[in-house]
């Protein structure tokens, strides 16, 4: 007989490895309890209970009984009863998903207070103001979260009371004013919902649990999950915990601490502390917190204890820990811990330092960083001078350089971003409702809050530039502007530059310069702790990875840069780029040739130019493979636009004969769908001499480099093959040319000939095609288009946003490879090709070659190399190493 499902676990029953069931927060509370840290007792309602509720609309039948049993145990442990009239137990109800979703779901504090027990709390604590402040917080949170009341109505009431008392913050309202404010809050609820605020503590608790369950499907939670690729079916746990109070006077307070700086990764004491406050006050940023070091003066004992607990947690988790705590009448309580979100800089430095300290292995350090973070570190930074005086300074919450027009609400950021405009979201402080705007904006700027505020935590998690707590700025969302102390007004639409590394904001667009990491990657020379960490991670990745990383490069300059960044060759050299610019006239001559002689003259004129190109690229990549793709696009792309030609001819007094010929050629070669028309291998077979000219240029470049003492390793790739017969015809012609050049020059050389697999038929018949190929290179851009039956440019401009919004695509299949469809064709092609030719080399040269998630797939699929743009090479090297470690150890990113 199967044991009944258990839906509630006391903190003492759980462990760190139960995050799937208890959520990240619940597992952390359980683990801290297990290792003896001072955690207020409580219990967790599991994610399984949430899944049942979301599927059926009802809690599991057993849940009420289990919650009542756990609550009774909590009451015994605390010596107080929920809702008691003399000294009531109060509890918090907090969400806790498997993966951290800061501020995206609901929290309700002070559950258990009502019109009678608030008086008992006042007497027991000896602080009437504290009791009424707690009660109004409960009504405000419960009304907004559980009963669906517009939160702005409560904020308006607070503002009115502050105005009447002529105070600047709600913290300055006395007990009598809070009593009135509480009555106003209850009246708002009654008016908006038609019911009274519930007085039964058990009812409050049950409804709060359901509200947290419901918040899993709230708009901001769904947006955040979509942005962070968190599965939709995980559900959230709910943590019920005895309240401890930081708003009991100057000997109390609340804060957030990090075991290392989440912005830079430096060791030390980092965080915020707010005396006489509850935890939400720090996270929301509505009050400006003190640096955590101030706690050393305010409460030396609590400061020392906190330091000890932070070291214990970092040693235990072997990572940066984000810790929430409360001091209640001098006594320290730890309320939450999690592996902290960090910037890209901090991720590399922390992983490197923990590896150097021996806390983690080199493999684990590699798993903890990723290619997306490395790419962000390579972005340019501002090139400032002494004359670039900032408008204001703030907290450097998330580094980087961003330029955009100022906007003052989330909706405007989304609207302008959709129109292609770069924006900076400016707020007094952000709330979870600002998430869509934070995603859309290039940077976030707030006048309140610190490194632990909502804006800072979310921006760091998303890799967005962020400056918080720029107190000198007066932000006026209603007027859609902010003002500096010297009277400078920045209105919506004005351009600003935000420096998340320096913590400054500037008027106008500052110039950019290469990042220190970018320079170090090209030179190989370290310039400090960050570049030490990056170069160290890449060195280890290179030592463990199986996949080679090559570059997509079409010029000697691109090839040289790619090599400096660690490329192991060129996986795609596109020859069509060599036919543009001044050479277009020669291509036109080839297209317009009326007979074989004219066409041969045009090709002969192109030959030395192609040879020169190839010679330079082979020199830059000396000793490394260079895969040269023969001409791929249809010829009409090298001719003027049809409409332009027609207008030019129609408006000319004496029509130009050459223009007439061009227009006739354009009309003759016009195709309804050029992507599926006369291009690739078809073009080489249909235009006599074209393939021979390009192959001769490659062969002569190889012999020239050999005579110069070089080590050229050219490979010829024939594109868009759909059948082995096409490849055999093209290969035969190429081999004849190679043999002639070898005989003419008296130079022997090897030049492998392969093909680009970019059609479903080619993948499905790869076994046959491999009979005539030395290598396969999967062109996943076209393979995605032909597999899905869509045009990338048209689709991305029309229905892709809809498909992404509705979840048809989790991510664009052109950004990350569609493993089930396109990826399966790649696997079939590799398997079938190697069954015929075990020495067949396979690679990928589409955009997916530089995408981190796709690289892991290509590693598992058994490819030999990936090829990507030069800028993405360092990230691809890193991800290839991470893929190898994950494959060997069965691990993944522990964050």
Largest sheet composition: 8 strands, mixed
User: Any idea what the radius of gyration is?
Assistant: 33 Å
Give the CA-CA distance, first to last residue.
38 Å
Low-pLDDT windows of residues: none
Oligomer: single chain
**Strand element count:** 31
**Estimated share of beta-strand residues:** 15-25%
Classification by helices and strands: alpha/beta
- Characterize the overall form: elongated
Strand order of the largest sheet: 12-22-21-14-15-16-17-13
Q: Mean pLDDT, as a whole number?
A: 90
**Helix content class:** 40-55%
Q: Number of helical runs? A: 36
Structure description:
- It is a single chain.
- The two termini are 38 Å apart.
- 53% of the residues are buried.
- This protein has 895 residues and is α/β, with parallel strands linked by helices.
- Helix content is 46%, strand content 17%.
Provide a concise account of the structure shown.
The protein is an alpha/beta fold.
What layout of secondary structure does this protein have?
Layout: E1 8-10, H1 19-34, E2 42-45, H2 47-56, H3 63-78, E3 91-97, E4 107-111, H4 117-125, H5 128-145, H6 151-165, H7 175-193, H8 201-215, H9 219-228, E5 236-242, E6 253-260, E7 267-275, H10 279-284, E8 290-291, H11 295-298, H12 300-317, E9 321-328, E10 331-339, H13 344-356, H14 362-367, H15 371-378, E11 381-382, E12 392-393, E13 395-398, E14 401-407, H16 410-418, E15 423-427, H17 435-440, E16 443-446, H18 454-462, E17 465-468, E18 474-476, E19 481-483, E20 489-491, E21 495-499, E22 504-507, E23 512-513, H19 516-523, H20 529-544, E24 548-552, H21 556-564, E25 570-574, H22 584-592, H23 596-620, E26 625-629, H24 642-651, H25 657-669, H26 681-686, H27 690-707, E27 713-718, H28 724-745, E28 753-757, H29 760-764, H30 766-769, E29 775-778, H31 780-788, H32 792-797, H33 800-805, H34 822-836, E30 841-844, H35 852-861, E31 865-868, H36 873-889
Parallel strand pairs: 14-15, 15-16, 16-17, 24-25, 24-31, 25-26, 26-27, 27-28, 28-29, 29-30, 30-31
Antiparallel strand pairs: 1-2, 2-5, 3-4, 3-5, 6-7, 6-9, 7-8, 9-10, 11-23, 12-22, 13-17, 14-21, 18-19, 19-20, 21-22
């Amino acid at each position: 007989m199967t044991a009944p499902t258990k839906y509630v676990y006391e903190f003492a029953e759980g462990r760190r490895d139960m995050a799937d069931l208890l959520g990240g927060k619940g597992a952390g509370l359980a683990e801290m309890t297990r290792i003896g840290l001072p955690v207020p007792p409580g219990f967790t309602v599991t994610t399984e209970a949430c899944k049942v509720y979301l599927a059926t609309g009802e809690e599991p039948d057993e849940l009420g009984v289990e919650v009542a049993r756990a609550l009774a145990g909590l009451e015994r442990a605390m010596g107080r009863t929920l809702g008691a009239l003399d000294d009531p137990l109060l509890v918090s109800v907090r969400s806790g998903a498997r993966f951290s979703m800061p501020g995206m779901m609901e929290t309700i504090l002070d559950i258990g207070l009502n019109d009678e027990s608030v008086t008992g709390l006042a007497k027991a604590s000896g602080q009437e103001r504290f009791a009424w402040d707690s009660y109004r917080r409960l009504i405000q949170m419960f009304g907004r979260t559980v009963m669906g009341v517009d939160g702005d109505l409560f904020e308006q009431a607070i503002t009115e009371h502050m105005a009447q008392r002529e105070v600047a913050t709600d913290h300055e309202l006395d007990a009598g004013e809070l009593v009135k404010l509480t009555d106003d809050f209850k009246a708002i609820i009654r008016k908006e919902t038609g019911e009274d605020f519930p007085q039964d503590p058990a009812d409050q608790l049950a409804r709060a649990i359901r509200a947290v369950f419901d918040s899993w499907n709230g708009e901001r939670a769904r947006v955040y999950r979509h942005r962070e690729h968190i599965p939709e079916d995980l559900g959230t746990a709910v943590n019920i915990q005895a309240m401890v109070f930081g708003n009991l006077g100057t000997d109390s307070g609340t804060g957030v601490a990090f075991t290392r700086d989440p912005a830079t990764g430096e060791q030390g004491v980092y965080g915020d502390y707010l005396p006489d406050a509850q935890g939400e006050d720090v996270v929301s940023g509505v009050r400006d917190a003190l640096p955590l070091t101030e706690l050393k003066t305010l409460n030396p004992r609590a400061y020392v204890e906190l330091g000890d607990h932070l070291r214990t947690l970092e040693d235990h988790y072997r990572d940066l820990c984000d810790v929430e705590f409360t001091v209640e009448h001098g006594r320290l309580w730890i309320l939450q811990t999690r592996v902290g979100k960090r910037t890209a800089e901090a991720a590399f430095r922390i992983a490197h330092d923990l590896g150097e300290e021996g806390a983690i292995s080199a493999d684990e350090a590699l798993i903890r960083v990723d290619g997306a973070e490395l790419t962000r570190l390579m972005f340019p930074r501002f090139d400032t001078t002494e004359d670039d005086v900032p408008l204001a300074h703030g907290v450097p919450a998330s580094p980087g350089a961003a330029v955009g027009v100022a906007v003052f609400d989330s909706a405007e950021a989304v609207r302008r971003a959709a129109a292609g405009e770069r924006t900076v979201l400016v707020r007094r402080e952000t709330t979870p409702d600002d998430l869509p705007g934070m995603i859309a904006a290039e940077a976030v700027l707030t006048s309140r809050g610190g490194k632990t505020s909502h804006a800072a935590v979310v921006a760091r998690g998303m890799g967005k530039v962020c400056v918080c707590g720029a107190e000198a700025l007066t932000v006026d969302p209603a007027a859609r502007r902010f003002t500096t102390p010297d009277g400078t007004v920045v209105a919506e639409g004005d351009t600003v530059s935000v420096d998340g590394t320096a913590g400054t904001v500037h008027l106008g667009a500052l110039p950019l310069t290469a990042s220190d990491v970018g320079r170090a990657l090209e030179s190989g020379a370290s310039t400090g702790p960050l570049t030490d960490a990056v170069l160290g991670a890449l060195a280890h990745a290179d030592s463990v990875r199986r996949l080679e990383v090559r570059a997509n490069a079409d010029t000697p300059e691109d090839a040289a840069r790619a090599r400096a960044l660690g490329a192991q060759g060129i996986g795609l050299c596109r020859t069509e780029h060599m036919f543009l610019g001044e050479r277009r006239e020669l291509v036109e001559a080839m297209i317009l040739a009326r007979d074989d002689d004219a066409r041969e003259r045009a090709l002969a004129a192109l030959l030395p130019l192609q040879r020169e190109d190839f010679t330079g690229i082979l020199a830059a990549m000396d000793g490394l493979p260079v895969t040269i793709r023969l001409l791929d696009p249809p010829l009409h792309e090298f001719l003027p636009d049809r409409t332009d030609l027609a207008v030019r001819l129609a408006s000319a007094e004496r029509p130009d004969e050459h223009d007439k010929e061009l227009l006739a050629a354009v009309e003759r070669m016009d195709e309804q769908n050029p992507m599926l028309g006369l291009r690739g291998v078809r073009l080489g077979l249909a235009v006599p001499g074209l393939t021979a000219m390009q192959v001769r240029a490659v062969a002569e470049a190889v012999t020239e480099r050999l005579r110069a003492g070089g080590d050229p390793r050219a490979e010829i790739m024939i594109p868009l093959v759909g059948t082995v017969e096409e490849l055999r015809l093209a290969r035969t012609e190429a081999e004849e040319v190679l043999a002639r050049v070898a005989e003419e020059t008296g130079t022997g050389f090897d030049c492998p000939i392969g093909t680009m697999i970019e059609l479903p038929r080619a993948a499905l018949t790869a076994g046959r095609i491999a009979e005539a190929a030395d290598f396969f290179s999967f062109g996943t851009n076209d393979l995605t288009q032909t597999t899905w039956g869509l045009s990338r440019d048209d689709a991305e401009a029309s229905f892709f946003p809809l498909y992404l919004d509705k979840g048809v695509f989790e991510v664009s299949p052109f950004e990350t490879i569609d493993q089930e469809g396109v990826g399966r064709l790649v696997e079939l092609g590799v398997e079938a090709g190697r069954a015929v030719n075990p020495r067949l080399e396979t690679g990928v040269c589409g955009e997916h070659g530089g995408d981190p998630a796709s690289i892991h797939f290509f590693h598992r699929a058994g490819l030999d190399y990936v090829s990507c743009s030069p800028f993405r090479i360092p990230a691809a090297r890193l991800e290839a190493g991470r893929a190898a470690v994950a494959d060997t150890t069965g691990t993944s990113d522990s964050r």
